[in-house]
Amino acid sequence: MRQGRKPVARDLADLLLGELGYRRVQSVVDAARGKLDRTREYLLRAQHRQSRSYLEHVAIAEALKRRDADGAQRAMTRHLDRTMEEIELRAAENPHIFATIAA
Question: Residue 72 belongs to what domain range?
Answer without folding.
Answer: 8-98
